[in-house]
Amino acid sequence: MADNLFGDYIRQRRQDAWLTRTELAKKANLSVSLIEKIELGTRQPTLHALQILFDTLDVAPMYRRHILDLSLPGLLGPPPPTTTPEPEADDLAELSSIDAPACFYTPPTFTIVAANSAHQQLFPGLIPGVSFPEWLFLNPIARNVIVDWRQEARRCLHSIHQLSPNVAKDPRLSAMATACSQAPEWDELWNSQSPKTFTPHLLVRTPTSQQIRLHIHTYSPEYPQRTWWLCHLVPGPGEHGQR
Questions:
Q1: pLDDT tens profile 68-117
Q2: Of the N and C termini of the chain, which has fewer Cβ atoms inside 10 Å?
Q3: Do 190 and 227 fall within a single domain?
Q4: How far apart are CA 168 and CA 2, in angstroms?
Q5: 220 is in which domain, residue-wise?
Q6: Same domain, yes or no: 134 and 203
Q7: Which of 188, 173, 183, 185 is CA-nearest to residue 138?
Q8: What digits encode the pLDDT tens for the residues 180-210?
Q9: Any idea what the CATH number is for the domain that residue 141 is in?
Q10: Domain co-membership, 224 together with 117
Q11: How many CA atoms lie within 13 A of 133 on its CB side?
């Protein structure tokens, strides 16, 4: 049987929201029969139904194209041209020119591809080839840098679930989960229901023990399309370190 990635994705998002098909149908104003067929892969959703389902299931807008390209390739037309798998000199120069912490990473594992000096200084050990979840759960430094460690862990895992059409069948996520399972909190947080919303900032502790609130800005470059995304952590207006 062919993979039914999109149907698996909608079913998992529905179950994560603790909704039955009937409850989702009522909230989305769609028929139970349509939702069942979409989940079983016997009916491809229209763009209108897609929009309604994503909105009802609180799928982050910036993740939607990624999900559709993986699970329903070609639905939105041919993707833009893709660059080389690794950042080129111009990409790295642009990253280095950013004063605030910034990095390139690949979804859904949030594996670092490149990071500027401010990012390297703030997050010791989070180097190219290391995934943010592995650093967060396995590197003791993370629990000092991230002030609300548990909240950030929940945000990270929520994003991973939203970004993968089928978490159980993704070998990259399986390898990451196996590594992170050494952390005592992993099973609880990986399998728990996440809040629908998170604050758009990250509270961090600098090497000088100051606490700084950074706003999380994430971009997915598309012209040409990259295999990585950009995460830019921007200090809020008037933000100052606090002892």
A1: 888 888 777 766 666 667 898 999 999 999 999 999 999 999 999 999 99
A2: N
A3: yes
A4: 16
A5: 89-235
A6: yes
A7: 183
A8: 999 999 999 998 876 666 778 999 999 999 9
A9: 3.30.450
A10: yes
A11: 29
Say if residue 132 is in the same domain as residue 230: yes
Domain at 16, CATH number: 1.10.260.40
Return all residues near 122 (Cβ < 8 A) that are at least 6 apart: 101, 145, 204, 206, 207, 233
Q: What does the block give as tokens for 104? A: 């390139």
Residue 102 and residue 65 share a domain: no
Q: Hey, what are 53's tokens?
A: 């389902």
Residue 108: cis peptide before it, omega within 30 degrees of 0: yes
The verdict on residue 179 lying in a domain is yes
Per-residue pLDDT at 241 exceeds 50 = no
Question: Tens digits of per-residue pLDDT, 24-62?
Answer: 999 999 999 999 999 999 998 899 999 999 999 999 888
Maximum CA extent, the chain: 58
